[in-house]
Amino acid sequence: MTGIYIHIPFCIKKCAYCDFNSYSGIRDMSYSYGKAVRAEIKNSPYKNKKIDTVYFGGGTPTCIDEKILIDILAAVREHFDLAEGAEITVECNPGTADFEKLLALRRAGFNRLSIGCQSADDKLLKKIGRIHTFKDFENCFFGARRAGFENISVDLMFGLPEHTAEIWRGTLRKVTELGPEHISAYSLKIEEGTPFFEMKSRGELSVPDDDANREMYDAAVEFLKDRGYFRYEISNFSKAGFESRHNLIYWTLGEYIGFGAGAHSFAGGRRFSNPLGVSDYIDFVSSGGRAEDSAETEPDIDMMCEFMFLGLRLDNGVSEREFKKRFGKNMREVFKIPLEKHLNVTRALASGGGNIKIRPEYTYVSNLIMSDFIL
Ligand code: SF4
Predict the structure, then answer these.
(1) What local confidence, expressed as pLDDT, does residue 236 receive?
(2) Does the pLDDT at position 204 exceed 80?
(3) Hey, whose CA ends up nearest to atom 3 of ligand 1?
(4) pLDDT at position 32, please?
(5) Least CB-packed of 121, 127, 183, 288 within 10 Å?
(6) pLDDT above 90 (res 290)
């Protein structure tokens, strides 16, 4: 499977916790940006490759003119072999996509919508700097259904400032009542360079401690399971058959080609990425630059570590047979020490059916376990 990622780095306003490659106040550059992305697609050395998933992420793709997104998707169709039934996702934030916009996107072929809701509590939404209310989210969700989106994912966050278990359960209840096909639930991370980081350093931000975060995570797993959402990755839950095919490509070390500012690619066994800033990216493309030209082949050992690190995030874990097929080596020999430690001593890993996975009760310390696989 091969996926295409398109980065749309525009937002109406930066959220207080966000360290993504996104910018506010420069949406007037979106037309020249769209043109640059189309040129990058046209000049890609991977042209005509069969593509199974396309993902427009951001930023907030829906905060710019939808024609820009539609034209980029048309360029993908023109220059790549888009598979019948390909998953085509666009990220969207409430308040930036009315019914007409959603309908235009659906008609152009986008068939999966990922909506950033984060919380059903308006006070919390305001506190974290979101531009919308929960009512805006509901309107966006209903509009998307009316426009014909039958595969909708909702992003939620826990561990927010002054977040309580009760507010979190209320969010889970209200969102699941709408019946989205997929839910992502991430814990807030305070990243350097964000307003939240500064506030925390000054002692002005109070966030739930590790135990409270763990309780919220466990509550989500249990609550969502009861409502038919199965955890297939640490932070991702879906109804049967609605796992994110695009993200599964990342987690199984599949091939993906990124277009746009800062977009990363992993293709032909090599990794490469574009310049981060919007102007830098536009200049780079218009002067004939190609990220592929600076690509480096990753040593096998790094790839093996990554295979383990990413695969252990999945509910199914990592396949010993797939490892052998891909690297020609025995996983148990390459990772003898961490496997013995976690299979036999901590017993945080379980082995069965040719797969090795993290036991559910150890999910919360998965980062510690996975870090042992960086050799
Ligand atoms: S909408 Fe998303 S990408 Fe934009 S600032 Fe907020 S979190 Fe960051």
Answers:
(1) 97
(2) yes
(3) 59
(4) 97
(5) 288
(6) no
pLDDT in tens, 57-69: 999 999 999 999 9
Question: Domain range spanning residue 133?
Answer: 2-250
Total of domains in the chain: 2
| 100 vs 270, higher pLDDT | 100
Q: Can you tell me which residue has the tokens 């699941």? A: 176
Same domain, 233 and 312: no
- Give the CATH number, domain containing residue 141: 3.20.20.70
Distance of CA 286 from the midpoint of ligand 1 (Å): 27
pLDDT higher than 90, residue 344: yes
- pTM of the predicted structure, to 2 decimals: 0.94
User: What sign results for the dihedral spanned by CA atoms 292, 295, 298, 303?
Assistant: negative
Q: Probe ligand 1: pick from 14, 125, 126, 154, max atoms within 8 Å of CB?
A: 14
Distance CA 227, CA 159 (A): 22
Same domain, 162 and 231: yes
Residue owning the nearest CA to atom 7 of ligand 1: 18
Q: Of ligand 1's atoms, which has the minimum distance to the CA of residue 13?
A: 5
Report how far ligand 1's centroid is from the alpha carbon of 226 (Å): 30
Contacts of 340 (CB under 8 A, 6+ apart): none
Tokens of 20: 């993504």
Q: What local confidence, expressed as pLDDT, does residue 293 receive?
A: 78
Mean pLDDT across the chain: 95
